[in-house]
Amino acid sequence: MPEPLDVLEALHSTPARRYLSDAPIPDEIVRDILDAAVRGPSGGNTQRWAWIVVRDPEVKAKIAEFYLEGWDKAYGVNREKILADPEGMSAASFNAADHLANHLAEAPVWIFPVLLGAAKSQNPRLGSSIYGAVQQLMLAARAHGIGSTLTTLYMAHEPEVRTLLGLPDDALTMALIPLGYPAKGRWAQPKRRPLDEVVFFEKFKTP
Ligand SMILES: Cc1cc2nc3c(=O)[nH]c(=O)nc-3n(C[C@H](O)[C@H](O)[C@H](O)COP(=O)(O)O)c2cc1C
User: What is the CATH number of the domain that holds 49?
Assistant: First the structure.
């Protein structure tokens, strides 16, 4: 059973966890986490989704290569530039993301939330029918002491990933969430811009 965890406390202490151990996660815990995820919302409660649990080392190794390629292209080669930018990522975040990119396959369980019939969608709000449930997944994992990160850097290889996961042609993976018991770091409050910079009353820019 997970430790009792106040909902608001969980909301304030669930950062991305990118240093994960390879210790296995029991099946019933994975099931419990997914059971909490699917309680999340979808438009009209259509639940046009699938949740693919990946543990197969061969599949993980292939997709981890795609991910590392995506990381290197977008971030790895730009390390100096990103770290020199005061608005950019902190060195700690960069190093953690770099670590995940190089150790992704070690996370014992991966979850791909998938939207069915979504591959050609033009709906800009498409993700709203699954990302609420994805956040529930990450919070349920947190309740079990399991860390996670919502990731997408494999996405340039969506067709190959679709084939590896045996998905229909019109399905779209919405993320890859590596799950694992944290190997380093803590359940700290995520840093965000101050509320007064982003919350407005009645009209945009009215504090
Ligand atoms: C759409 C989306 C895509 C993301 N893709 C990645 C990714 O590919 N790799 C990664 O390490 N983090 C990824 N993240 C995680 C964000 O970097 C993270 O949520 C953000 O830095 C805040 O982290 P914090 O909650 O630990 O403060 C993604 C988040 C979102 C919402």
Answer: 3.40.109.10
Q: Is 80 exceeded by the pLDDT of residue 156?
A: yes
Which CA distances in Å does 18 have to 3, 84, 106, 131?
22, 22, 11, 19
Which ligand 1 atom sits nearest the alpha carbon of residue 89? 21
Please give the model's pTM, rounded to 2 decimal places: 0.96
For residue 9, tell me if it sits in a domain. Answer: no
The answer to whether position 5 is within a domain reads no
Task: Please report which residue ranges of 18-119 form alpha helices under DSSP H.
Answer: 27-37, 57-74, 79-84, 91-103
Q: Is 14's C-beta closer than 6 angstroms to any atom of ligand 1?
A: no
Residue 75 lies in a domain: yes
Q: What is the pLDDT of residue 38?
A: 98
Residue 119 to residue 204: CA distance in whole angstroms: 33
Q: Distance between CA atoms of 166 and 169, rounded to whole angstroms? A: 9
The tally of domains found in the chain comes to 1
Q: What pLDDT does 44 receive?
A: 97
The whole-angstrom separation of Cα 105 and Cα 91 is 23
Dig out the tokens for 18 from the structure: 């990118």
Instruction: Tell me, in angstroms, the distance from the centre of ligand 1 to residue 149's CA.
Output: 6
Closest by CA to 115, choosing from 66, 29, 52, 178, is 52
Instruction: Kindly state whether residue 203 falls inside one of the protein's structural domains.
Output: no
**Is residue 121 lining ligand 1, measured as CB closer than 6 Å?**
no
Residue 176, phi then psi, degrees to nearest 5: -125, 120
